[in-house]
Amino acid sequence: MDLGLRDKAVLVTAASQGLGRATAESFAREGARVALCARDPAALEQAAAAARQAGAAEVLSLPCDLTDPIAIDDMVGEVIKVFGTLHVLVNNAGGPPPGRFHQLDDAAWQKAFDLTLMSAVRATRAALPVMRAQRWGRIVNISSYTVKQPIPDIMLSNSLRLAVAGWAKSLATDIARDNVLINTVGPGWTRTGRVTQLMETRATGGRTPADAEADIVATVPLGRLAEPQEIADVVTFLASERASFVTGTFLAVDGGVVQGPT
Q1: What's this model's pTM, rounded to 2 decimal places?
Q2: Which of 62, 69, 141, 198 is 20 to 30 A from 12 via CA?
Q3: What local confidence, expressed as pLDDT, does residue 152 receive?
Q4: Domains by residue range for the chain, with CATH
């Protein structure tokens, strides 16, 4: 299936590892021009090299702190300057740290708010004018299935991922007439560094990370963790010409974990 993404200008945020890197490589395999941003320049360059090897028409890597509004504005502006436009924005950010309500102070909430919600809001605000002017744009937010079914020990993520989904649903109506579509993907348990961190957090009282992983897998009807590429391919499809009548949607890609309509 031709996804119609060849030579499209794509920006993937937080793309140096995990789901962001897998997503950048997925677009690269479609022959898109791919821009990646992340905080760690060395890891970012490795991800950019992988995107080139995967077949990207052009690759641009830009260091960026997604909690810094000026840095986001400058980064999106540079992508538009170099590529001449921007067709696809994938809003991705590393999840906030785990913790239950009594463990979180105002500073933790503010930092998570800036990283999880406002990074998407700010990048989208910078990207929308060119998308609306050309009457073609795709925005895909990488969130979490916890929008539908919270996990007890990640209070910050539960709360702010839900905010991203609500913001995207509201924005979808405003921009649809300009043929700019926005959707949110909710990955389930996926083999990433973030999930490894959660397993290590749960490895207490003589339990190992492997024990924690076994507990997680037991909750997944498909009986395994997802691989990052499985999530990335769904993101790429939603950004493509083949998903031209899909907007305002939250799609759980969770192996069947959510016990209710998604």
Answers
A1: 0.95
A2: 198
A3: 85
A4: 9-188+226-253 (3.40.50.720)
